[in-house]
Amino acid sequence: GFPARSVYKLEEIDHRVRLLRSGMRVLDLGAAPGSWALYAAQKIGPNGKLLAVDLKPLDVGLPPQASFFVGDALELGNEALALHAPYDVVLSDMAPNTSGNRFADQARSFELFMRALAVAANLLKVGGAFVGKIFMGEDLPVARTELRKHFAGERLIRPEGTRTVSYEVFIIGTGRRAETSETPA
Ligand code: SAM
């Protein structure tokens, strides 16, 4: 089974955006305990390739098409994440440890989102897709504007089962553009 209930979020995004297909190359940032990685690895199948990264180890074994290492996405360079690049899909479910200070948590979430977007801008194939979690706040429009620079399609998805008290949302970019404008890391 899946180690975290959060798998339904990726499942819903996958069904709505038609994200993951057999043979794809996927990068999963903030992968622990491992539900998204397991779901994505199953969807891409034995001909796909998945790299998962988190500050913490996974609680689940992954099939052979998937690999994992412990690392900090804010510290790692793009090269360290490029094992299976160029990617078809970059996922980020990264979230800070919540401190209780909503504004501090939002700022930290924005930082993680922007780092994931910069990685995606660097390592995605043209036409590739990005899914990034962000806590809703005053930075949300900035994140969306930055994402639109790199992707032809942009949408906001708040999965059905998301707890009402949660203020997280996923910004999805589809159709990675060919132009290489820079997003600062
Ligand atoms: N998608 C995962 C799953 O389905 O099992 C759940 C991810 S959990 C909501 C958020 C994760 O982001 C945590 O495991 C946390 O360690 C990770 N994270 C937070 N900051 C990070 C960073 N700087 N680099 C890598 N991972 C980070």
CATH superfamily (homologous) name: Vaccinia Virus protein VP39
Whole-number total of structural domains: 1
Q: Which word captures the global form?
A: globular
Approximate strand percentage: 25-35%
- Amino- and carboxy-terminal Cα gap: 35 Å
**CATH-defined fold name:** Rossmann fold
Helix and strand content put the structural class at alpha/beta
- Spans of at least 5 consecutive residues whose pLDDT stays below 50 are none
Plain-language structure description:
The chain is an alpha/beta fold and 185 residues long. The chain has a single domain, classed as Rossmann fold, CATH 3.40.50. 28% of the residues lie in helices and 27% in strands. It is built from 4 helices and 7 strands; from the N terminus they run αβαβββαβαββ. It has helices at 7-17, 35-44, 102-123, 140-148; strands at 25-29, 49-54, 66-70, 87-92, 124-135, 151-157, 168-176. It has a 7-stranded mixed beta sheet, sandwiched between helices. The protein is globular. S-adenosylmethionine (SAM) binds at residues 4, 6-7, 30-36, 53-56, 72-74, 93-95, 112.
